Amino acid sequence: MYAPTSSASEMTTPLYGSGEAVCATCPTPKLTLTGNTPVYLEVAVHPYVESGWKASDSLDGNMSTSVRVQGKVNHMRPGVYTLTYIVTSSCGNSDTARRTVIVGDYTPPRISARYQDTVTIEKGDVYDVREHIAILDAWTDSTFLFDSLKIVSNDVNTSQPGIYSTTVVTKDSYENVSNTYVLTVVVEDNSNSSVKTLSANLPHVEVFPNPTSGIVSIRSDFPIRTTSVFNSLGKEVYRSTTNSSRTHLAVKNLDHLSDGLYFLKVELVNGTTQTQQIRVLK
After folding, report:
1. Which one of 19, 119, 218, 245 has the fewest CB atoms closer than 10 angstroms to its CB?
2. Nearest partner of 137 among 107, 157, 181, judged by Cα
3. How many C-beta neighbours within 10 Å does residue 186 have?
4. Mean pLDDT within 168-194
């Protein structure tokens, strides 16, 4: 087997090309691809790695180093790409094989709390679950995600104080289904109290610049406790804890991250968390 890189994908049943005979008395080479076709590649995560091929005939022997590959794969752009492999023997006979690489979004969107997993509203208030959740996805805009939002269950009764819940799910434009998220809703009656519960009085978090070339600043109404960055697969790739309880502005160096979309999660000293999308472009 010959491959131009040191990495190889999962091996499967070899794929044979279609030979073309120019010299009827000479053998036709056999070109065999190793690995999968089609190949499904997560967009903007990892570049395409060729899994290799084998080529030979009874006259020239091993011809793997003589295989020419036509076509390229852009892992930063969704699409269907075709790679064509050609080998030609010393007598002019050839064999051809093709591999399809489909670059797409295979990571489902994620629903989380916009501020907290439990929200408190006043009796008689208007309640809309969309105002209390955040939906993150690398390649589908928020309008589509919220339009696709499905309420699985909802027992919230704003006319009656109590503890309720709303369960929601959504999907992105690639038909990836999100996690099932449950928001707890507390309905309170403070009509006879001088103290009102104001769930809307939540801290503001600003992240800039976005996109960033590596340095990002985070500004918040409340002091920042921890900062975490996750890639589109949900893996934590950066984490920082602030020692001072008075840090309202934090500057983070994300220069080690490659280009792509990430999710930045900020935890404040008051216990609330906020998550925002950031894009690294160098």
Report:
1. 245
2. 107
3. 15
4. 87
